[in-house]
Design goal:
heterodimer; A: alpha+beta; Butyryl-Coa Dehydrogenase, subunit A, domain 1; Butyryl-CoA Dehydrogenase, subunit A, domain 3; four-stranded mixed β-sheet; three-stranded antiparallel β-sheet; 11% strand; B: alpha+beta; Butyryl-CoA Dehydrogenase, subunit A, domain 2; 3 domains; 12% strand; binds flavin-adenine dinucleotide
């Protein structure tokens, strides 16, 4: 029994933390917004050197800490609001890496893993448009049908791809509604993959949201310790102090929840899907809530475009609805429990 | 990350199962959900306590010569005991102010005589204790207490009033904070003194709580006497001594024994049960959402306890999360109460009765008792606002 990250995972988190802090500081993030949120391809290639995208692409032994490794990375991505489809690209590679027919599999993996290519990812149905993160930047789009387990790989750079409504609220991951052009580059039915991808997507977004939410608490704490009003740091005023304490108390316990959910996926615990579903719903809701409260802590400056807070708030809004809304996840978890019904008298307390 | 238990610990788990099975009749009597509170007052509890100490489950960090089991520190064994005993509706350690609060304090600050005299009967559940800290004018601001103790030869003479003193009506002794050094700075003039409750100078008046029960009391001390030897730690060092106890009190209030998870499971069952008109609460999206959130929070709380234990076992601190435990736990508890109230309809008007902390209510009266008791939980041992202050200042480092 050791409910903690391994030394390697801690080291990986530290490395990413340091790298992202240097590369995606406030100035660079704002420059990215000023550029309209267009993905910086050179930066993407550079980031690939961290081995990030490969995190879940290789089928491995049951019990290997794949989901937890990837989630530990996603936390750092969220913590630094790293622009680009990092989680979608991980998921795309997770799907492609498990295609049965070799085909272009290894070529795609090499291109994506080295950052030469960019992938988006969505759950959807054959022929129906999907909401795809960073679709305008992406070369490939992987669509997974959660109902029947079909996987399609689409070329987004070919003629005939229809880009519908742009959803550009979160400029670190602007999304578009896309109708890919048929035929797909590849179509395959991979048994047993859809549930894993669904759970994995939820845990990774939950970890991203946790990273962002805990960063908001830190930003609020730091600002409250330095900003002076009435001749003292505003963090000395109990009203504000308690607001920040409540934010911390809402966020910090979630760390153990996404750790557990990721680990449960890796070792195949029976409650893995349920915990992934709940973790995604509650942590993204907390992120949005804490993001809003952080704006208030900052006062007027918090309401400006030039402050960092709105970048995180908008990532929270993205995480809240992608790939499913918290509302849908609650309905799913409640329905599952309703189907399990009422335990036979005497069997449970 | 590894959530499996080595063979050694799996063996401990089966051993506990066997232990609880061998004593099934006694366990059933003690874990009776309808009994209101104070397991330590149940006549057959000392019998069970002795068995559990002898088996090495209770009193683990208390030396054998003081009536403990004297086991090496083992966070994982403690976790297994907590889960298995919790599952059986039993506490994970000897209950009551004596074993929980006084014993660790004496172990840390008491002299040999005090340990020899007080610890064995306390661990054997033969002595009952109460905590004399709060006063009418000293609650959250405990250091403003003004009960006085003056030396008269080799005896302390104590005058003052304590309040909210849980279990004073059953207690043999009170561990009491008194001011002994007039003129000293607030925190430096306080001493920790053990007072015999069965003497003419001690008057206990039970207070009726909003639950209808009387667990806490007013205690009037009028020329009450205590031998000089009942001073624990140095004169004037009582604040430090008392803080040991408070740390233990809060640490034991996070409910990492799975109680919240079991209570939430009972809420789900309730939500799935159709009412007279065939309607189910679970079909209300608001209720479903509340239940999902509670399930997630109870699970997160449980896993956070694992995290704290694992990091403690590896000798690493988890300061901020540990400081949060009481506040997180009491908020989950209150929201469990609110969630049930939401579904209870007119059952909410049942006279509250028959709920014990750590149990799963089995009927509307017990749920109502939980609804009310969860309020006391957020006040006792340091109110939620005081916890917020600790989280902000000691955890996050916000300016004082
Ligand atoms: C069920 C129960 C059992 C108890 N058992 C015992 C016992 O056995 N022995 C014992 O000694 N005591 C016991 N207590 C007392 C308990 O420790 C005190 O009630 C508690 O410390 C609060 O003190 P108070 O009641 O004087 O409230 P106050 O301190 O007057 O607090 C009233 C309100 O003001 C808030 N407040 C106070 N100071 C601050 C601040 N600085 N910043 C922000 N908000 C503040 C509090 O949070 C609270 O909401 C028990 C209490 C309860 C409810």
């Amino acid at each position: 029994m050791k409910f903690d990250l391994s030394d390697e995972q801690k080291q990986m988190a530290e490395t990413l933390d340091r790298y992202f802090a240097a590369v995606w500081d406030s100035q660079r993030l704002h420059a990215h917004l000023a550029g309209g949120g267009v993905l910086d391809r050179a930066g993407w290639r550079k980031m690939s050197e961290l081995g990030l995208f490969y995190m879940v692409s290789e089928p491995t032994q049951p019990g290997d800490p794949l989901a937890l490794d990837a989630a530990v990375c996603a936390e750092q991505v969220g913590r630094h609001a790293v622009p680009g489809p990092v989680v979608p690209q991980m998921l795309a590679m997770a799907a492609i890496g498990r295609l049965q027919s070799a085909g272009h599999r290894d070529t795609w993996l090499a291109a994506l893993g080295s950052g030469d290519a960019v992938a988006s990812f969505a759950f959807g149905k054959a022929g129906a448009p999907v909401l795809a993160p960073c679709a305008r930047d992406a070369d490939l789009l992987v669509i997974v049908d959660l109902a029947d387990g079909h996987i399609w790989v689409h070329d987004l750079k070919r003629d005939g791809v229809a880009f519908g409504a742009d959803r550009n609220l979160d400029l670190t991951r602007r999304a578009s509604v896309v109708a890919p052009a048929d035929p797909p580059l590849h179509a395959e039915h991979v048994p047993g993959l859809r549930g894993w991808l669904r759970d994995l997507s939820r845990v990774l977004v939950a970890a991203d949201a946790f990273g962002g939410a805990s960063r908001c608490v830190e930003m609020a704490t730091d600002y409250a310790s330095s900003r002076q009003q009435f001749g003292q740091p505003i963090g000395r005023f109990q009203g504000l102090k308690f607001q920040i304490a409540d934010m911390a108390v809402e966020v910090e316990p979630w760390r153990a929840l996404w750790w557990y959910a990721a680990h449960a996926i890796d070792v195949g615990r029976p409650d893995a899907s349920r915990m992934a579903c709940l973790a995604k719903a509650v942590i993204t809701e907390s992120y949005a809530s804490v993001g809003r409260r952080t704006v208030e802590v900052f006062g007027g400056i918090g309401f400006t475009w030039d402050a960092d807070v709105h970048i995180f708030l908008k990532r929270a809004m993205f995480d809240l609805v992608w790939p499913q809304t918290a509302h849908a996840l609650y309905a799913e978890a409640a329905e599952e429990r309703a189907l399990a019904g009422i335990p036979v008298a005497g069997q449970t307390a | 990350m590894d959530m499996t238990f080595s063979a050694e610990y799996e063996a401990l788990r089966s051993e506990i199962h066997a232990f609880l099975g061998d004593n099934a009749e006694l366990v059933a009597e003690l874990s009776d959900q309808s009994r209101t509170s104070g397991l330590q007052y149940v006549p057959r509890f000392p019998e069970f306590a002795a068995l559990a100490v002898a088996a090495g489950y209770y009193g683990r960090n208390m030396p054998r010569r003081y009536g403990g089991a004297e086991r090496p520190y083992d966070a994982i064994a403690a976790l297994i005991i907590r889960e298995e005993f919790g599952q059986a509706g039993l506490p994970d350690a000897l209950p009551g102010m004596g074993p929980r609060l006084l014993a660790p304090t004496l172990l840390a600050h008491g002299n040999d005589w005090q340990k020899e005299v007080f610890l064995p009967p306390t661990m054997a559940m033969k002595l009952h204790w109460c905590q004399g800290y709060s006063e009418p004018e000293a609650g959250s601001d405990l250091a403003s207490l003004c009960t006085r103790a003056e030396l008269d030869g080799d005896e302390w003479v104590i005058n003052g009033q304590k309040v909210w003193t849980t279990g004073a009506q059953h207690a043999d002794y009170m561990f009491c904070l008194c001011r002994t050094e007039p003129g000293a700075l607030r925190h430096e003039g306080i001493s920790y003194i053990i007072i015999d409750m069965k003497q003419p100078g001690v008057e206990v008046r039970p207070l009726r709580q909003l639950t209808g029960d009387s667990e806490f009391n007013e205690v009037f001390l009028t020329d009450a006497r205590a031998p000089l030897a009942h001073l624990v730690g140095q004169r004037g060092a009582g604040w430090k001594v008392a803080m040991t106890t408070l740390g233990h009190e809060r640490a034991s209030m996070g409910a990492g024994d799975g109680t919240y998870g079991r209570q939430v499971e009972a809420l789900w069952t309730r939500a799935c049960t159709p009412d007279a008109d065939g309607l189910r609460a679970i079909d209300d999206a608001g209720v479903a959402r509340d239940l999902c959130q509670l399930e997630a929070r109870a699970a997160a709380n449980q896993f956070t306890q694992y995290r704290i234990l694992s990091q403690a076992a590896a000798g690493q601190g988890t300061r901020t999360v540990s400081i949060m435990s009481k506040l997180v736990g009491s908020e989950i508890f209150q929201d469990i109460a609110r969630c049930h109230a939401q579904m209870a309809a007119t059952d909410l008007l049942e006279t509250p009765a028959g709920f014990r902390l750590g149990s799963v209510p089995g009927n509307p009266a017990a749920w109502n008792a939980l609804y009310l008791r969860s309020l006391g939980y957020a006040i006792a041992g340091g109110t939620s606002n005081i916890q917020r202050r600790l989280v902000a200042e000691r955890g996050l480092g916000l300016p004082r």
